[in-house]
Amino acid sequence: xxxxxxxxxxxxxxxxxxxxxxxxxxxxxxxxxxxxxxxxxxxxxxxxxxxxxxxxxxxxxxxxxxxxxxxxxxxxxxxxxxxxxxxxxxxxxxxxxxxxxxxxxxxxxxxxxxxxxxxxxxxxxxxxxxxxxxxxxxxxxxxxxxxxxxxxxxxxxxxxxxxxxxxxxxxxxxxxx
Length: 177
Prior knowledge:
- Helix content is 58%, strand content 7%.
- The chain is mainly alpha-helical and 177 residues long.
- It has a two-stranded antiparallel sheet with strand order 1-2.
- It is globular, with a radius of gyration of 15 Å.
- The mean pLDDT is 90.
């Protein structure tokens, strides 16, 4: 069994209709279903108990974990990060459209080569998805890839540590009974 914390478990294609990376399971060839991600139920619980806006906040928090400010403002990553920080879906849509070619290359080439900058770009891109749940799940997944690709040693442990930080952030948002 391939660990779900490693890029080896997945392959990625760019869906030009939805302008997002699709995560496909290597074992089945099917798109990874949200319910297979251990964070999905926790993200939904936080949304239900607190606010739907927390899904978007979580996506942006994931983006801050991948050092988005290191991307120059004129690059696709810099433009996506600037757009993600605004609450304006029309800006998100415009920037997503304008950066689609760069995102497609990151999906097709960058992820397969283990490039941290490609994973960073896809985290930032995820933040601008019009559906907050997609934004949250995609940003979480791609920030794991960034942690994995950025690790100097033990990439699996780095990805798992990132996932643990995700869970901790979400748990901290749940109301205490």
